[in-house]
Amino acid sequence: MSEVLQRFRPLFSPRSITFIGASRYPMKWGFIVLANLVNGGFKGKIYPVNPRENEIMNLKAYHSVDEVPEVTDLAVIVTPPSSVPPLIEDCSRKGIKAAVVITAGFAEVGQEGHRLQLDMADIAQRSDILLVGPNCNGIICPPSSLYPWMPPGVYPNPGPLAIVSQSGNVGVSVISRGMSRGFGFSHFVGSGNEAHLRLADFIEFFGEDPQIKVILSYVEGIREGKRFLEVAKKVTKTKPIVMIKAGETDAGARAAYSHTAALSGSETVFAAAVRQAGIIRASDIHELFDISAAFIRQPLPEGKRVGIVTDGGGWGVLAADACTKAGLEVAQLPNELITEMDGFLPPWWSRGNPVDLVSGMRQGDVKNAIEVLLRCPQVDGVIFLGMRGSLAMQDGGSSSLLNIVTSSSGDFFSEILQMMEEYGKPIILASDTSFGNIDMSKDLASTLGVKGMVCYNLPDQAAVAFSSLAQYGEYLRENGYQ
Amino acid sequence: MSEVLQRFRPLFSPRSITFIGASRYPMKWGFIVLANLVNGGFKGKIYPVNPRENEIMNLKAYHSVDEVPEVTDLAVIVTPPSSVPPLIEDCSRKGIKAAVVITAGFAEVGQEGHRLQLDMADIAQRSDILLVGPNCNGIICPPSSLYPWMPPGVYPNPGPLAIVSQSGNVGVSVISRGMSRGFGFSHFVGSGNEAHLRLADFIEFFGEDPQIKVILSYVEGIREGKRFLEVAKKVTKTKPIVMIKAGETDAGARAAYSHTAALSGSETVFAAAVRQAGIIRASDIHELFDISAAFIRQPLPEGKRVGIVTDGGGWGVLAADACTKAGLEVAQLPNELITEMDGFLPPWWSRGNPVDLVSGMRQGDVKNAIEVLLRCPQVDGVIFLGMRGSLAMQDGGSSSLLNIVTSSSGDFFSEILQMMEEYGKPIILASDTSFGNIDMSKDLASTLGVKGMVCYNLPDQAAVAFSSLAQYGEYLRENGYQ
Questions:
Q1: Better pLDDT: A233 or A357
Q2: How far apart, in whole angstroms, are the C-alpha atoms of residue A36 and residue A263?
Q3: pLDDT in tens, B206-237
Q4: Nearest CB neighbour to A434, from listed B180, B244, B285
Q5: Closest CA relative to residue A91, chosen from A107, A77, A105, A79
Q6: Residue B319 in contact with residue B462, Cβ under 8 Å?
Q7: pTM of the prediction?
Q8: What span, in angstroms and rounded, lies between the C-alpha atoms of B243 and B325?
Q9: Identity of the residue in A348, A354, A457 whose CB atom sits nearest the CB atom of B255
Q10: What is the pLDDT of residue A347?
Q11: Fewer beta carbons within 10 angstroms: which end of chain A, N or C?
Q12: B314 closest CA partner among A161, A141, A222, A284
């Protein structure tokens, strides 16, 4: 195990946990976070600490850190701000190796909080404690069944995505979007004010953990720019980092300072630096997940020339616009390819790119059209739009669309995966997932999400995902990493 | 009834319908569209026409238009292209006043199709038949229980939104998004190749129909630019028109031509013209619905100064960025207002705009904070973010979020509506609608959609909605319409 992985083990795979500020009152964070930890199925011992309680949630409670009968790997702290530095001191004396400080009211609220935060960081630094926070919503590590965080009753499954977020809220939004699409997460860290551990530390760890395929981040301000860029450059050699940078505008920057005491810095400088480091920018919360999901199974395209297959003209036109706006090219199809498609497609197909099958298409047509495009050297990958229509048609217009998505389309999706692997080119799917009153999103999530695939809801989202894959592929090639 | 309303009555409120090309084979459009018409609950008589059948779907079938024992208001036609012009001739001879031609294979496929299309338009023009299509997916008018269109089994409820779309597919996508949010529609028209009736005709009609509050449109090309702009200018005096213009890029324009034989024209000229006509542009399918929904209940703001109330810092920062990017101002709060909020908000609030209540907020706080902002003359409206967090907290972190959304929050939403009316300023809501494995979207749809309200899923969507309201308000004021 590498030094970095070793160092973070007490934080993400603790053998036991001291929970400081545990409460038996359901409206208190000391209750909610502890309940998440307990109900999330953590396998090791949990020691609640509260000076006035002897038992909380059927666990024996201790009046101080000192009284806890074991040296735990991790401490979780939810007590008031002024109590935190002395408690970190207690943890240090005890030999605890990592602490998550959820409490808010530090640098983000003024001078006095800032002083407390410096004190706390100082103790952590001196005693070699890994300190997360303060002013954060906790961490999770589903592979360790570890959920000491604020959102009540939310337990993502393990999976290949890791998130570090300077906003807990935004992190939970991204995770909720992922969960609703059937995706799992290896880690989440609400890094909060980053008194001690910073963005760069988590990204470095995520870079080395072999479970993790894609790193997601929400950033308001970067505290050690140089170190961050060094780490990012190292990590992006092997794994994509997808990032929202908030506080881009003056009003946003002011809000960021009052939120996590983050200095957003110059957008121009930041933009240039992250581009240099191969980081992919996302423009909103949904896009952060959407782009990241593409990297799990899709091969990186060798260029920007997209073949579009659609079952409806309008979606095709919008996709052509969206691809162009995202910096992609709608591939010119060679005449031989058009002749080949003439051989099996119905006579009304568009005879160009987008390959418009004009509703009423048969499933075999879709598969064959995609394959012909993938085989073409002038096409770097495919966007396929509108399963909705094709699925509806196969069903002859009855109400059992859902069955099709979950049964025969299971095969369809396996074929898509197989073609992606065989040709080494991406196939991005986009479709409405509701059709009138029928909502297929859950079924698509359970069919696709488990395969690490996603069905986007707009041609625009598909184009952005494709363009992000192309951008990262280009970065790797230009720097000789691939 | 106005002349325009009178003229369109046979199309949207027909007393009876001749269905030409009816089929008893479930994979045929002649079956699917007829099934939609029948199962959609159309109250008048339906006469299937098919030269080889005597009964279809328990309806007596006729071998020709001539044999139908009644002069129906409307004909729906799904027969092959070359049969269409003579059939329109039959309809004309019979005295039928309106026809929807769903059949494709006209101007969009080449010379011969183009000729057929001209013929058909010519007959319609001569005999004063209102002709929709060809190459379209039909029309619907839920207030008339009229659903002669292609998407199988999709029956939107009546409501204040009307759509004209040059792509059937895109229209259904917009309608599906609306349905999933609890919204209804007064009309949908897939205008297809627009051989006879064009965009401007439908928009003119929508402008006059008092049931309709907002007009949505998806446009690939505009056929009579001058007339279109005249109509649009007249209609936007009293109703907003929200529009996607597809084919903005070269690749998109090529795709549009092959789709509906539409000439997309110059984006620069178009952009200037629609701005002049007060039309609001949407950049994608979701935005088309999202912006339109805002116009149903929200008062138009008198300016661009937004107050933001959030239960989480990250969402607040993103909202401040999004407002600025959408051309809005994050309002500077006067000192008196901050002092007033100090009086009732918990001490940790952000003391600025965004008004960040930092999780753990109480419902009363939200309402009071919004009201203080609405009362402030320097604030033109409010964006409220993140009901998710506040709802979770009120519940003390258990699993019955859903109950809260549907019960006590029912009151909360009524209070929101009341405040909007009292202060004449918009309040835009945005929140995740899924939280871990809990999906609140259906409950929000049934609580909010019926009130004509929507909960956006991103701060960015809320900012765009607010900005569209502000833009339209400004247009009305500048032109002296308000």
A1: A233
A2: 32
A3: 999 999 999 999 999 988 889 999 999 999 99
A4: B180
A5: A77
A6: yes
A7: 0.95
A8: 20
A9: A354
A10: 85
A11: N
A12: A284
